[in-house]
Design brief:
- By secondary structure, this protein is an alpha/beta fold.
- The chain has helices at 8-11, 26-38, 54-67, 79-83, 89-104, 127-144, 173-187, 206-230, 253-268; strands spanning 2-6, 43-46, 72-76, 109-113, 148-150, 242-247.
- It has one domain: Rossmann fold (3-Layer(aba) Sandwich), CATH 3.40.50.
- Helices cover 47% and strands 10% of the residues.
- Helix 6 (127-144) links the parallel strand 4 (109-113) and strand 5.
- Helix 5 (89-104) runs parallel beside helix 6 (127-144).
- The two termini are 31 Å apart.
Length: 269
């Protein structure tokens, strides 16, 4: 039984798929499918919802996760707190450690992630110190609690901008595939994912670069700060993608499960 917990990173934001819940797929779905191919019988639940803060993940996801008696748990939590104004990092990491301790006590294999050093703009530069503190603490806790550590910070492949979605904060489809491969490698599970063999990116002229910067600020940065001022998030109206355990078929994957669920809902209407 594999339970994925967290926020947009684990929900799958950036890896769009209209056939799956919340319109995304993501690395966790891909890991679940490869686990089922390697060893039939795996069940999977994904409780992650975009924009959730650590306290919300503890409140909404911990109890359901424990009730499922998982043998594998993945957790990334706290990234949205780091982006919030006035976050008390000492308290955040104390809460994070408490959550890790609860998950580690289950005896399940626990996978933890550091945060990536996203270099998108000087506007966000002050947040790098928080991210560095977070990562240092996650590394310590992974050692203390015997967790598998996936050190996202150190993955050089993400230096390529094509590994990122247009908001520059979430992974693209290629980024999610690469992350799935990293998780599977850390778990010792065979897979067929291979890194993208891209040509070097074309260099942008000054005018095109400036145009893209303005577009990014208009479409992503300003709406982000507006939501923060209004106290709303993109995940407020969403539910977990796979809130109950689903048995992952070896053929057809989770899309087949989604189609069955949609058919059952239509029959019940």
């Amino acid at each position: 039984m594999f339970v994925a917990m967290g926020d947009s990173f684990t929900e799958g934001v950036g890896d769009r798929n209209k056939h799956l819940p919340n319109g995304v797929r993501g690395w966790a779905d891909r890991v679940a499918e490869k686990l089922a191919k390697a060893e039939p019988g795996w069940e999977y639940a994904n409780l992650a919802i975009r924009s959730k803060r650590l306290r919300q993940i503890i409140q909404d996801q911990l109890e359901p996760a424990l009730a499922m008696k998982p043998t594998l748990i993945t957790l990334y939590a706290g990234g949205n707190d780091i982006l919030d104004f006035g976050t008390d990092m000492e308290q955040l990491m104390a809460d994070y450690e408490w959550l890790v301790s609860q998950l580690a006590a289950t005896g399940a294999t626990l996978v933890l992630f550091t945060g990536y050093d996203v270099k998108v703009s000087a506007v966000l530069e002050p947040l790098r110190r928080r991210n560095a503190m977070y990562n240092s603490r996650v590394r310590e806790l992974a050692g203390w609690y015997g967790a598998v550590l996936l050190d996202y910070w150190c993955l050089d492949a993400y230096h390529d901008k094509r590994m990122w979605d247009t908001d520059r904060l979430h992974m693209s489809k290629a980024g999610h595939k690469y992350m799935a491969a990293q998780v599977l490698d850390h778990l010792g599970v065979q897979h067929s994912y291979t890194p993208k063999d891209w040509e070097p990116p074309a260099k942008l002229g000054l005018r095109e670069w400036a145009q893209r910067q303005r577009q990014w600020i208009r479409e992503w940065v300003l709406p982000l700060f507006q939501r923060k001022l209004q106290g709303i998030t993109l995940g407020d109206s969403l539910s977990p993608r796979w809130p109950e355990p689903v048995r992952v078929p070896r053929k057809g994957g989770l899309r087949k499960v989604a189609e069955r669920q949609a058919a059952a809902r239509a029959a019940g209407e």
